[in-house]
Amino acid sequence: MTVLGAHLDDAEFAVARDGATLASALSIVHADPSDPSRFGTPAADTARRTPHLVSLTHWSSLARGAALARPVQSVLRAELRERLGTLHRPGDSLQLAVPAALEAPALGWVLGACRAESLPVAALYDGAAVAVSALGLQGTVVVLEAGLHHLGAVRVVTEGGTARRRAARVTRDTGLMALRQAWMQLIAEAMLLRSRFDPLHDAASEQRLFDRIMPAAAEAATESSVTLELPTGGLPCAVTLSRDQFAAAARPVQRALLSSIDGLRPPGAPFTLLVPAVLLAVPGLAPSLLALPNSRVFVLPSDLIARAVSMLSAESDAADESAEVLLHRAVPQMLPLEAASELVAGTNDPPHRAPPTHVLWEGQALPLVGALEVGRAPAAGGVRLGDGLAGISRMHCSLCTSASGVELVDHSRFGTWLNGRRVAGRASLAAGDRIRIGDPGVELALIAVGADPR
Known about the structure:
By secondary structure, the chain is α+β, with helices and mostly antiparallel strands. Among the domains are: 3-136 and 301-333, 2-Layer Sandwich (Nucleotidyltransferase, domain 5), CATH 3.30.420.40; 358-447, Tumour Suppressor Smad4 (Sandwich), CATH 2.60.200. It has helices spanning 58-63, 70-85, 104-116, 127-135, 176-195, 203-222, 243-249, 251-264, 277-280, 285-290, 304-309, and strands spanning 3-7, 13-17, 20-25, 29-30, 54-55, 93-98, 121-126, 139-146, 150-159, 162-172, 225-230, 237-242, 271-276, 295-300, 327-328, 330-332, 341-343, 358-361, 364-367, 371-375, 383-384, 397-402, 405-410, 416-418, 421-422, 426-428, 434-437, 442-447. Helix 5 packs across helix 6 (203-222). Mean pLDDT is 88; it is low at 346-352.
C-alpha cells in the first residue's frame, strides 16, 4: 500500500507520495463558486487582481475554532478536493501532518470533509514531531511555524527513539501575509517619495509587487540592499532599500517568534531550534536566532514534513468509517530523510553585519564615539528619555565603542532588550539591531553610515 501524505500548512500546502513531493503551494485559492472549473484551485497569481474572488483566510478561520460559515466550508472542501482528490489513487493510504494552529475541533471538521470527498484519512500526525523525527534530531527541539495568518512554536523532546510533542504556543492574526503587507507598504512609500508612483494604486501593479516582494526580502537578507523595479506606464520606477529597512518592518514577527521560543525553551539547558527556510529569509531574524544562548539552529527544508509523513507506516483501517482516526503526538524516529543543515554564526551569517556607527533617536543620527549614555539623566551628549516614561532608569544603559566593536551595557534594574531579548549585562551590537527600553518601550535603531557603498 502506498501512502499519500500532506502537510496542512496554509503557507505551504505540500503533498507527497512515498517520500517524493507531488505538489506544494500557498493556500490562496479561487473562491468563486460560479466557476466550478477554478473553485478551490491555486490563485496566488491573482490574489491582488481579483481579491473578491479569492480566499486566503479559510484555514485561519477554521483554526480559530468558531462555527464555520457555509462559504468557508465550501472553499475548504473545494481545496481539499483539488489538492488531494486529484492525486489520491485507489489503494492509497492518506496521512496528514498538522500544524499546531489546527486543534481538535478543526481536525474533526477536516476528517469529515475528507470523507465527504471520498478521501478517508488513516492517521493524523503532529507536524513538528514528524519534522524532528525526519531529521534525526535529539534532545529538546523547538520547531517554529510560520503560517499565512499565524506564528507558532512547538517543543518536541526525543527520548527512547521517539519524537514527542510536549507543548506549543500559537500567535494568531499575524504571520507571513502581515509580513508581506508590511514590506509592500514599505516599498510603496519609498516609490511615492521617489517618483510619486504608488504601486498600490491599481490591482495590476499591486499584484506585481505582491509577486516580487518575498524574493526581494530574501535578497535583502543576504545582501546589504535590494533594488526593486516596477513598470509605471512610462519609465520604470526603481527604489533601493536596505536590509535594515526590511528588518525594521519585520520587527513584530521577530518579537512574536522570540517570545514563543522563550516560553518553550528549557531554562538554562541546551536545546535545538528548527526554523523553516522561509523564516530564515526574513532580514535580521537569523542573527537574532543565532544569538540565543545554549542553542543550535537548524533549517527545516521546504516540503520535508509532507515527504516524511508519506514515509511513515501506513495505517490499515482508513476505509472503515467507524474506525477511530488517531492524532499521533509521538512519532518513532525514522531513518533521516536528509542530513540536518545547521546555521552557524560566521559561515551562514550574512557578511554585512557591520558594527554600527550611529544610533537613530527622534530623527537624529547620533554618532557612536566613546560611551554614549541613555536614560532619564544621561551625561551631556547622551540620549535623554522623557521623565514620564515607565521602566527607565536615570542612567539606564550605555553604548560603548572600542577597537573591538560596539557593546551595549545595561545598568538598570528594569532591563534592556536587544532585538526582542533581554540583555544579560552586556551584548555586542551590529548595524540593524534594535534596542528597546522601558514599558511599553521606546526603540533605538543602530545603523552603519558609509559601511557599504551600495
